[in-house]
Design goal:
The protein has helices at 18-35, 56-69; strands at 5-13, 38-44, 47-55, 78-82, 90-94. With 98 residues, it is α+β, with helices and mostly antiparallel strands. The chain has a 5-stranded mixed β-sheet.
């Protein structure tokens, strides 16, 4: 069976204000719904950490637009593959620490 779901794990240290965190949370939810992405992203004042999954094209588009919302050109990530969606839903947590 072909492995059709891509899984991306990433983290990035950068300073984020309360306003940026709230904006990022809203944008990520919208992008995840449009591109059928699931998983968890943890955001805090010192950066982000996440593992998400989706069909390759949708996941890549999500990551591209998510990076743009962080005002960076590219989000480094590790990629793996799965035969099924490994996550049931999308969640983004804003925490004191990542």
């Amino acid at each position: 069976m072909d492995q059709k779901y891509q899984i991306a794990s990433f983290y990035l240290f950068l300073k984020l204000s309360e306003e940026q965190l709230e904006s990022l949370r809203r944008e990520a939810f919208e992008l995840a719904a449009v591109h059928e992405v699931r998983g968890l992203i943890v955001c805090g004042s010192e950066g982000i950490n996440g593992t998400i999954s989706g069909l390759a094209e949708g996941l890549e588009k999500f990551l591209e637009l998510f990076a743009a919302s962080l005002e960076i050109s590219h989000l480094e990530r590790k990629i793996s593959w799965s035969n099924k969606h490994p996550f049931a839903r999308f969640k983004i947590d804003v925490r004191a620490e990542i």
